Amino acid sequence: MNSSATIAASPHRDGDAGDRALARIFSAYTASATLWLVFATLVGVVLALKFAYPELLSGSPALTFGRLRPIHTNGTFYAWASPALIGLALYIAARSSGARLYSPKLAWVTLGLVNLAAIAGTVSLALGLNDGDQEYREWLGWIRVVLALGLVTAVWNLLATVARREGKDIYLSNWYTIGGTLWTIIIVVVALLPWYQHGLGQVAVQGYYMHNAVGMWFTPLSLGVFYYALPKLMNRPIYSYSLGIFAFWTNLAFYPLLGAHHFLFSPLPWWLQTTAIVCSVAMLVPVWGGSANFLLTMRGRPERMRRTPAAFILVGVLGYLLGSTQGTVEAFRSLQRVWHLTNFTVGHSHLTMYGFVTFAIWGGIYALLPRATGKEPNNLLMGVHFWLATVGVLIYVLALSIGGTVQGLDWIRGAPFIESVTDMAPYWLWRSIGGLLMFVSHLVFAWNVWTMTYRRARTPAPSIAPAPAGA
Amino acid sequence: MNRLVAIAGGATLVYAVLAVLMAIMPGIELSQVPPGPGVKPLSPIEARGREIYVAEGCAYCHTQQVRPLPVDRVFGRPSAPGDFAFDTPELLGSERTGPDLTNVGTRQSSDVWQYIHLYDPRAVVPQSIMPSFRWLFDVVAKAPAGVVPVPVPKPYAPANGAVIPTDDAKALVAYLLSLKQQPIPGAPGEAAATAPLAQAAPANGTTGGAAAGGAAAGAPAFDAADGAKLFAANCAACHGEQGAGVPGAFPTLHGNPVVMATDPAEHIATVLHGAQGKPINGVTYAAQMPAFASQLSDRQIADIIDHERTSWGNHSPTVTAADVAAVRAKK
Ligand code: HEM
Q1: What is the pLDDT, as a whole number, of residue A378?
Q2: Nearest atom (ligand 1) to Cα of A357
Q3: N vs C: which end of chain B shows fewer Cβ within 10 Å?
Q4: B247: domain range?
Q5: Domain shared by B254 and B207, yes or no
């Protein structure tokens, strides 16, 4: 165990062709994902403003709320977070194994497939072509096959790279990234096959899909980034390697069972709903265990925590802890009575997908990309990105958590429905303000990515050799 | 190498088993739930309308699932598994920015209302944040013979020309009007299928507002609060919170001849049995006034009628439940 823990913190070899190819791939994945982040969250801002100005951009069917919303969600999921995480996973697989990437060519194929799916998906949604209003699987079937092929090529590359590792042990991060990718291939296939998806049967599959896509794809990949980037930034091994392994298996045992909690009180069988509630509680074990592991790794190194990439990871860990615990609390039937179907859920989605996943990606990119390319971002601009995004998402989540509660209580009070719409107005306004701050932070991030990748270094880079502090 | 196979293979295997247990097996079982009593497949035009509903993403703001909770009673009886037998792709939804639509065909049975609402929701519900769907309509200089233009109220209508629903709009409205819950014979909470209309307020009712008028005639002999509430729940969608109607689409009840008439028989009959196509103050309305005989009791109808007869400056003799019963018995 210890040997693999030190691999993560061991200095890497620089300068050869394999490293340059890896840096090019890591840069391209990050840049492509960042462009999509800017686009998909611009759409998010438009959506947010439509709650205050329903006639905004209302002339064209392609810009109506019901078509833009899946463009926003699928865009952030499959064109921003997914390729960004795959890029990180490929880099981590090679570095933590002390090996070259198995096939740079295959990595380009993966990136091409994911982008092809994203473009085809976005265009067809704008044209009103979808596979049902079923969250996160609205893309037409063939487009999701392209996405699945992207995942297959990615996991192939990851496995073959880790198979070339130096020691016997496989560093923990790779457990999470490889496991997550393999599971996701299963998820995508289960969601595609039609035979058991009629009427209520499809509702059961949808409950499984929407939750597992989040919890068995974005969560393990992001945790994989934590397990690698955090020891790098702190210059010490992860606090408890075995706790990380324990969290891996418990996450696998409980998470897949809790999908039905999205359809509590629906006509789905009661046992399915109850299993979902029980497992939602059991999820506290891996979540608290994992979070404690990260926080204890950070403890006692204030001088390192002050650096911005570590701050991103700290917010990411807190987002994971709070978002997942909130998910458990939400799953209780008594609380679902108030919050289910309200805007509270949208707040929860952004606490997890933004406060956790997106911050984990940013932390990973700021921590690792400069090591790959030898180009550092501007510290001040990194700070501007951090504060705009943090304050923005805080406003966003607080506004919808309070607003969602008001909405739920309006319904319980038996007020005319329209009151729950008018009562939300101030909270929707605050959400737009938070969303605007988030969006501006993405522009700053895009600039920083440019600095870390394709921008010509002002002073000729001191060949990539001397690794930045902490490597 | 072996280690890699063990970890990756083991984790995949465990997950595959769980996926079969939690998704595929329930999927197989629930796909075979037979349709409930009276639940029928959609007609071709309704099915086309459902496709438009899916394409425009209506389900991101509207659920189609009534939970067995008191809060959901306004939307109908609790959904039963058999209700969804023909619902593929499923449209249960996960967010209620707008009201649940499981039973909207019963609640909003007027196609004219639906057309105006789709053309511009704010024309009938000023506070609405629902998007407008104008591309489902054509604006033509003059409506072709035999086609009734949508009576969009002035400020919301195009400057010139008539608004005509396209085939897509007709299909969508046919689908919306088909959304009616079938009663479950003998089920305990069965009465709830119609009860919500009588109790609760739909999208655009407001509290208070109309109640003030009741005071005009001195101490009313009827339940003024109940009358105002029932009016908000059942009538305000078309006639407006303040009974002013929507010009050209739904008649105003202010100084309306039927409401002002001393003999209440026609007033009662209109509410009981509905009405259509009768010129009112020189205007003929394309929309239909729905019948409420099967949804409201005599007592409730009397309260609503008395609310209308004593509000907004109207001063007409009030009626009793017995008067309503008498008119009901005639037909
Ligand atoms: C500028 C930043 C963002 C803004 C302004 C924004 C805004 C919005 C809005 C207005 C909605 C629709 C909510 C509704 O239907 O009531 C939404 C939904 C959603 N967004 Fe975002 N968003 C942003 C960033 C992101 C990012 C980066 C992600 C993921 C990585 C994300 C994931 C989601 C998800 C999953 C939903 C569906 C929520 C649910 O059904 O519970 N968003 N967003």
Answers
A1: 94
A2: 30
A3: C
A4: 200-330
A5: yes
Task: Report CA(A72)–ligand 1 centroid distance (Å).
Answer: 7
Identify whether B22 is part of a domain.
no
- CB contact, 8 Å: A265 with chain B? yes
B237 and B283 housed in the same domain: yes
Backbone φ and ψ for B275, nearest 5 degrees, come out as -160, 155
pLDDT of residue B125: 86
Q: Report the candidate in A25, A67, A20 with the shortest Cα–Cα distance to residue A46.
A: A67
Residues constituting chain B: 331
Distance of CA A216 to the CA centre of its chain: 11
Integer Cα distance of A227 and B251 in angstroms: 68
Q: Chain B contacts of A178, Cβ < 8 Å?
A: 7-8
What residues of chain A, 64 to 93, have a C-beta less than 8 Å from chain B? 64-67, 69-70
B50 with B167, same domain: the answer is: yes
Report which listed range, A132-146, A299-313, B114-128, B188-202, is most confident: A132-146
The sign one gets for the Cα dihedral A120, A125, A129, A130 is positive
Q: CB of A463 within 8 A of CB of A373?
A: no
What's the CA gap between A219 and B202, in Å, rounded?
Answer: 41
Query: In the block, which residue shows the tokens 């709830």?
Result: B192
ipTM of the complex: 0.91
CATH number of the domain residue B140 falls in = 1.10.760.10
Cβ-defined contact of A162 to B4 (cutoff 8 Å):
yes
B42 and B190 in a single domain? The answer is yes
DSSP B9-39: HHHHHHHHHHHIIIIIHHHHHHHTPPPPTT-
| Minimal Cβ distance to A197: which of B31, B125, B132 | B31
Confidence of residue A5 (pLDDT cuts 50, 70, 90): very low
Domain count, chain B: 2
C-beta atoms surrounding A20 within 10 Å = 15
**Mutate which of A169, A200, A273, A410 to disrupt the B interface (most B C-beta within 10 Å)?**
A200
